[in-house]
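Lab channel / #folding
Pinned by the channel admin:
"Please post every new chain as: sequence first, then the structure tokens as a reply. Keep commentary short and put observations after the output so the thread stays searchable."

First post following the new format, from NK:
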Amino acid sequence: MNFLRNLLAAIIGCLIAFGIMFFMGMVFLSLMAEAGDGIVIKEKSILELQLQQPVNDYVGDNEADPFAGLFGQALGLDEVLHAIEVAKTDSDIKGISINNNFLMAGLAQTQELRKALHDFKESGKFIYSFADYYLQKDYYLASVADSVFLNPVGGMDFKGLSSEVLFYKDLQEKTGVRMEVIRHGKYKSAVEPFLANEMSDANRTQIKELLGSLWGNMVVDISDGRNISEANVNIIADTLGGRSPKYAKASGLIDDTLFYDQYETKLRSALSLNEGDEMNMVALGDYLKRSNKKVIQKGDDKIAVVFAQGEILYGEGGPDVIGQGLMTKALKKAVDDDKVKAIVLRVDSPGGSALTSDIIWREIELAKEKKPVVVSMGNVAASGGYYIAAGADKIFAEPTTITGSIGVFGTIPNINGLAKEIGINAEQVGTNKNSVDYSVFEPMTDNFRKVVQDGIEEIYGTFLDRVAQGRNITVAQADSLAQGRVWSGAEAKKLGLVDELGNLNDAIAAAAELAEIGTYGIKKYPKYKSGFERFMEDVNSAKTKIGQNLVKEEIGVRTYDILKQMKSAMEQEGIQARMPFVLDIK
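Reply from TO:
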């Protein structure tokens, strides 16, 4: 007995010691990070722009959190844009080097970064770009540079945009696991992958037109940046004129082929350095520590920027999920703050729960009664993402924003076929006529389908009413723009779904104008859990992530992605206002 008692005491003592050591280690790391905040940036420095982490519109770190930034897995677009703006007037920064990105940002985010870099270049400072390999989005960003260079044995992906949609009808029939789909009658492309083996003509047309609009905006910017006609940019894409460094140089996509040491020589020349002088390269992460302390927009009056990013799900929400909990708190804080004179809602979402979307829509309506509300659309503001935006006083979108998709649907998993195949028979007992409404083991009854269909139609009608009210059009006009159709920001502007084409700064300026204020500062909402709290949650879910990685390695990434999409569809609860399918643009 004494042995067991001593053993237990030893184990508990070890756990306590480990906990203390872990905590002290975290404190040490935080102190090291704080010590690094005083980083010295020398004269004639170059800001190195490497964006190899996922880019979110906003990461929401609390500056008072000693662990802020230690556990982050994403870059905040707002912070990167701010850093570029600060660098523009920083006498120590003479230029920017865009270096081997493999950019993990959406197209609208990339376009916003490109605009910021163009503005930096207009100040008279230089931008050079180098890569061993340019992916298409990387090259789009790089094309803003004064000079673009490629490794002599590198490569480039430049062929125009494409999209692939997976269809699951045969898979469902073979496995006996299917999705029962209930939708508004005119909402033709919604959940089409579960109903057919191939793309409908209408769906193919809308995706082709969407891609054409997005590519068209990219072509205009590349044409301007590289001084190549738009027609020739398309010819280069059609003929794969950038498929090798030799062809890329001949077509004008790049200025020269260089090894990295030769690229460094170009940078030294741009800085007018003498032989033996040290070249100072400042990593973006280090420069953020300086730029985050510099406030450009100042004033007692404030504009609140509320970030809504991720799927819309019922609940509290977080950095990657829009929930009514955090959004309601953020909007109420902005309304109750007397210094806040207007609100900008930044939306980056493919949609999700119709109920949550309507709760947030209502909160925006209440906010509008007190203060102007302007929406800025990011990469995607579709379906539920458009739902929460529709009532704003003014809506801005990037030309490359994906928006619209006004429609609702429901998908309910059913394993009746599989149950029969493996010998499962489910029997139900209930007290009333409709007490047994649905079982995944039985075929869906006509009565249950009608009840759900009625709910779909009612929510679709509500969605149309919200759009009609917000855009000051009739319900019939809203319906003609709806039916699940997806639009680019440029097309949405022509159709009246958005008011202006512009970025977040343009939306903030419009909010200030509506509030009739000249000088103002910015307050950002919501505040997410601390980096340490999120880290501990990640530790708790590490077992699940390890299992997912093992499955991915065993069956392959492509098959895993298919299963992941199926799982996501099966886990959707309630009626959905979301993008009709995963739109993978390459």
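NK: The radius of gyration is 27 Å.
TO: also worth noting, The first helix runs from residue 2 to 35.
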